[in-house]
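Summary for the steering committee. One of the milestones for this cycle was to obtain a three-dimensional model of the protein with manganese (II) ion bound, which we needed before selecting residues for the alanine scan. The sequence and ligand used are listed below.
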Amino acid sequence: MSQYRIAVIGGDGIGPEVTHQAMRAADAAVARTGSSIGWTEFPWGTDYYFAHGRMAPPEFLDELAKFDAMLLGAVGHPQVQDHITLNGLLLPIRRRFDQCVCLRPAYLYAGVESPLRNKPAGSIDMLVFRENTEGEYANVGGRVYQGSDHDVAIQTSVFTRRGCERIIRAAFEKAVTRPRKRVASITKSNAQGYGMVLWDDVFTAVAKEYPQIETESLLVDRAVMEFVRRPESFDVVVASNLFGDILTDLSAIIVGSMGLAASANIDPTRQHPSLFEPVHGSAPDITGKGIANPLAAILSAAMMLDHLGDAKAAQAIHQAVGQLLSDSKTRTPDLGGMAKTEEVGSAVAALISSGA
Ligand code: NAD
Ligand code: IPM
Ligand code: MN
């Protein structure tokens, strides 16, 4: 029996709405395994910024370091530039806690229709490994002569052998455990002739250590086309920070909705807490309407429990979500239903508790 200490940052927009349902599901799941969760909620985000001029208190990373894991809703507000809000909360967490592996599964559930024609349940089943601490998000650069005709902006990508190798190796290690044993690496090394050529070199070298794994290397423009033309062929996918970001909105929608896409930001060394959050953002267009799909946040909580070693609790959530989607009309409008966020959360919690 364990007691997990989890930090919760609901954040902005639909973030708090979906996070609340994820907490209910996680509580119901650990109750079945005899464990419990001590939640500590932090009111950080753009409302905090309006009141205090910053997204979180100066010592917020030290505060978060004390927890076993973090659950986050979303960050982003239409009235503040995104680079300010995101660089004040989410991105420093990923960097400070060296969460180099961003894991983003996309699975076509029974009962969910893909916008692509004639895709049977389970036919799309991919796991994207997104590099999460460097690459195009390294935050290296500057701006001079701002606002003048001579305005200059420099934004530098940073690719290191260590950074490439640890995400590529993580992808191969996972692929070994999956039945199809494939890894696709996605770059743009025909145009990005330094950093992404280093990535390709590392991919080739690591692949040699895994002869049982079938590999392919795709340019990102071709890859987005293949995600639509032959999504079934992808198993494990590994990509840079920016490409992994873009590809996972695409992988989310081809399995039905942004509202189903979960993600984990992991420090594989476990020296620091990892962060679990849906792939989607704060969705200002539906904020406050009570219709956000909470399943992406709920499935992110399942990834958190898995990471904490409570595989049974994680499995209970997966089973409940699978059953809800295949057997019930209780679903939010993004999946063609009429249900509210709260109703979906209640239905999932009830299915978990009943042990269905
Ligand atoms: P978004 O993911 O917030 O929304 C994209 C579309 O998907 C919208 O139509 C939205 O209504 C829909 N959608 C998203 N999540 C949904 C859910 N759970 N249920 C039903 N529909 C859902 O992307 P955006 O509009 O590009 O970004 C909005 C804000 O969120 C921006 O400020 C952006 O920077 C931020 N953002 C934050 C994160 C994060 O915190 N991890 C991720 C992505 C975007
Ligand atoms: C995501 C988001 C973030 C990212 C933004 C909000 C900085 O889009 O987690 O997918 O690009 O990493
Ligand atoms: Mn994104």
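Key point for the committee: Residues 15-33 form the longest helix (19 residues).
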